[in-house]
Design goal:
mainly alpha; 56% helix; globular; 279 residues; two-stranded antiparallel ribbon
């Protein structure tokens, strides 16, 4: 599940200061806008809103370092190598994965809670690394797929834990809870293109479908690990099916608004995977 960047920002509050601006990690150093998710410049180390995060937009004193780095990443276009250079750019976009300490902390906390939910299914009685790997990967791969595709499209994209989601997931980690909810956070993106936004929403459930059907094939190949693989297939089918529900901030609503035919095909595949894996 991933959320839209603007939904995370919420209400901005403009602050006009008549004295020298104080440094505040949630206040844009240029315009004074209070932002719940500020950006820190890698060069001057100040905090900025989304409009002034680029060094070019806040007159960064280290602009020469920024320009030097940008120039170093440009390809030297030649008319006879356009197709090759295009392929190199695509590979560069895929490999140019960006993250932050904040994202790593949020993702680590969320993953730890997801692992606890997996352990709670056995009342914390014994540890099975095979089951935990399958269980946790369904969450991690889903969220990272959103992030990587959004960054490939040139969007800022990072995972953010949400306090209410963390609380719900933590409660689900209690062995006495009969129902388990995994919603520790979401990947935030900033895309205005409806088609790209729909694809970013779709890629999460698609990764679960790909892993789920792969587990089904492995279950038929390796009998000794058959219980783990069938559980992995059914669980990934459930994760995909749940996220494809066209409601609220779930992936399904975004996909349904973008392309109803693709949504229907994905939902049918998820339901089939869940039923086959469960049986």
């Amino acid at each position: 599940m991933f959320d839209h960047y603007f939904m995370l920002i919420g209400i901005h509050q403009s602050i006009t200061m008549t004295t020298e601006r104080k440094k505040n990690p949630i206040e844009c150093y240029t315009c004074g806008l209070v932002d719940s998710l500020p950006f820190r410049c890698n060069y001057c180390k100040e905090y900025f809103c989304s409009d002034h995060r680029n060094p070019l937009h806040h007159s960064c004193p280290f602009l020469h370092s920024y320009n030097k780095r940008i120039q170093g990443t440009h390809f030297n276009d030649k008319p006879d190598n356009k197709s090759n250079l295009s392929g190199l750019r695509n590979i560069g976009n895929i490999l140019n994965i960006k993250t932050s300490k904040t994202e790593l902390i949020h993702l680590s906390v969320a993953t730890a809670l997801v692992i606890c939910v997996g352990l709670s299914l056995n009342n914390y009685r014994y540890f099975s690394w095979q089951f935990l790997a399958i269980f946790t990967s369904a969450f991690l791969v889903h969220e990272l797929a959103h992030k990587f595709l959004a960054q490939y499209y040139g969007s800022w994209s990072e995972f953010r834990a949400e306090i209410y989601g963390l609380i719900i997931t933590a409660i689900s980690a209690l062995p006495i809870m009969p129902f388990k909810f995994i919603a520790p956070g979401a990947v935030m993106v900033r895309l205005n293109d409806r088609s790209k936004f729909g694809r970013v929403a779709l890629i999460g459930p698609l990764t679960n479908l790909a892993m789920g059907f792969s587990f089904l094939i492995l279950a038929l190949t390796y009998d000794s690990y058959n219980p783990y693989f069938t559980v992995g297939a059914s669980f990934n089918g459930w994760i995909s099916m749940f996220n494809l529900i066209p409601m609220g901030i779930l992936d399904g609503q975004k996909i349904f608004d973008w392309n109803k035919l693709i949504w229907a095909a994905a939902m049918a595949a998820a339901m089939a995977l869940f039923i086959i894996g469960y049986l």
